[in-house]
Amino acid sequence: MTKPRVLSTRPLFPAARKILDEHFDVEYWMKPERISRAELLERVAGKDALICLLTEKVDEELLANALKLRIVATVSVGYDNIDVAACTHRKVVATHTPGVLDDTTADFAWTLLMAVARRLLEGDAWMRSGTWPGWDLDQLVGGDVWGKTLGIVGFGRIGRGVARRAQGFQMRVLYNDAVRAPTEIEDQLHAEFADRDRIFRESDFISLHVPLLPDTRHLISKKNLERMKRTAFLINTSRGPVVDEAALADALENKTIAGAALDVYEHEPKVHPALVARKDVILAPHIASASVDTRTKMAVMAANNVVAFFEGRCPPNAFNAAALGLE
Ligand SMILES: NC(=O)c1ccc[n+]([C@@H]2O[C@H](COP(=O)([O-])OP(=O)(O)OC[C@H]3O[C@@H](n4cnc5c(N)ncnc54)[C@H](O)[C@@H]3O)[C@@H](O)[C@H]2O)c1
User: Fold this and answer.
1) Per the confidence metrics, is the pTM higher than 0.85?
2) In this structure, are residues 240 and 265 in contact, taking their beta carbons and an 8 Å threshold?
């Protein structure tokens, strides 16, 4: 019997390759540079499954070019790279990797939060420059973290992980979400539901954990930045377009807020040039989930979803399963 044919746009990790190679005839994109759109369209034609990253767009054009395709597995929890309606329309199952990256991503949101508040990168640059004159009372004074108010926008798996960590810093936690969390979760995490306006006005740190959707695009706008405290910091480990980067650059320039730490960008891999020059911004290259263990788990999860599908089971992490009547 011929095996299903799979295209993987990355070599993945050995643990995921082992699973895939046992079941499928897999073509891996092995070159160090990202697969181009043209190569992707050419190679996905005739494949039964696609394993892709968040940098690959799965849209009507791709689907129309790959009429045998039955399943798309993105190695990411966010799936704004996938046109879900187009997949569902063409009866293509689409899966993602929820849950396995929550703590690693929450850890990194905290890494950014602490680093920007305490001006770590400015200090590091100073030390390396060889010009640090020694201790002084008012050098690199930053914002306190402990005891402050943390506003979490998007109180899902990762947002809650960020809240859990705040307890160790005796912080007050406010959160906003399209859906209010159950009381026992609020109690457990000492988190209080607040409308967006209150989040912006009262928080010393705002950490974003919403998916990229039409109503979260530019959620951090000029208007909302102006509601924030002048001493507040913005942390974004969600998706770049949730923040209006030009408005953020203006807000920093005008000292409307104190600083920002970003892992994701509006037009990746580009960054707004006005942000690059600023000392009150930390710029990370989309690495919030980048631990060896977590990235391996994500790749394995994607592989297992594809295996489940071809074994006749509903892939455990299919986000259009209900629409396809698979559940
Ligand atoms: N930087 C990274 O490497 C990285 C890593 C992991 C996840 N992410 C991003 O983080 C996002 C969140 O991941 P998650 O696993 O916590 O997802 P999740 O689905 O568990 O949580 C998202 C939460 O946002 C809420 N939400 C949706 N629309 C909203 C709105 N308009 N206003 C307020 N809340 C709204 C949802 O109700 C949900 O509770 C992902 O979609 C992804 O884009 C980024």
Assistant:
1) yes
2) yes
Could you give the CA distance from residue 64 to residue 89 in angstroms, rounded to a whole number? 11
Average pLDDT, integer, range 292-297: 98
Q: Going by C-beta distance under 8 Å and a sequence separation of 6 or more, which residues neighbour residue 325?
A: none
Give 24-38 pLDDT, tens digit per residue: 999 999 999 999 999
Residue given tokens 């929820």 in the structure block: 98
Show the tokens assigned to 86.
């187009």
| Closest C-alpha among 170, 171, 174, 169 to residue 154 | 174
Ligand 1 center–CA 136 separation, angstroms: 42
* Integer Cα distance of 156 and 214 in angstroms: 18
Contact assessment for residue 116 and residue 282, using Cβ atoms and an 8 Å cutoff = yes
Dist CA 7 CA 19 (whole Å): 14
pLDDT digits (tens, 9 = 90+) for 126-165: 999 999 999 999 999 999 999 999 999 999 999 999 999 9
Q: Which tokens in the block code for residue 200?
A: 């912006």
Residue 156 near ligand 1, beta carbon < 6 Å: yes
Residue 168 CB burial class (10 angstroms; 0-12, 13-18, ≥19): exposed
Evaluate: CB of 217 within 6 angstroms of ligand 1: no
- pLDDT score for 255: 98
**Centre of ligand 1 from the C-alpha of residue 127, in Å:** 37
| Residues belonging to the active site | 239, 268, 286
The sheet that has 149-153: what strands, in order across it? 191-193, 172-176, 149-153, 205-208, 233-236, 259-262, 281-283
Q: Tell me the C-alpha distance between 105 and 298, whole Å.
A: 12
Q: Please report which helix (H) or strand (E) contains residue 304, including its range.
A: helix 292-310
Please name every residue paired with 193 in a beta bridge, in sequence order, or none if there are none: 175
Q: For 209-253, what is each residue's pLDDT tens digit?
A: 999 999 999 999 999 999 999 999 999 999 999 999 999 999 999
